[in-house]
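Chain A, query sequence.
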Amino acid sequence: MESEQNNLVLGLDLDGVITEFPDVFRQLTHCWPGRVVVITFRNDSEKASRDVIASGIRFDEIVLVSSFAEKVQVVRDRNIALYLDDQPEMLRGMPVCTATGLIRNAGNCDFSEGRWIMSDLTCRLV
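Chain A, predicted structure.
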């Protein structure tokens, strides 16, 4: 059982996830039993590294991507078991075997109304 847990890979977005709740993700990454991969839609790897380190996040790898599809491919390639992002668009196309979570922030939630903000590309009303 322990070896299965150690193989669980956690994937975290940087902006809007780690940057919004650094204390939460610092705690999570330090108790996560497996690898931690930060995936970010940035183009400056040195600044991304500095920001992750400044947040106190435990990580094994930081991957910079330049498209939604590339983020999905990183999740597939790294066999990420749980991936957390703040943009619903980034969760489209994720492997069925990957648990995903949408982190709420001012960019995707109207806190005064208590409602998510999503496009018709990412949401189907029921």
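The chain has one domain: 2-116. The beta strands are 9-13, 36-40, 61-64, 80-85, 99-102, 109-110, 115-116.
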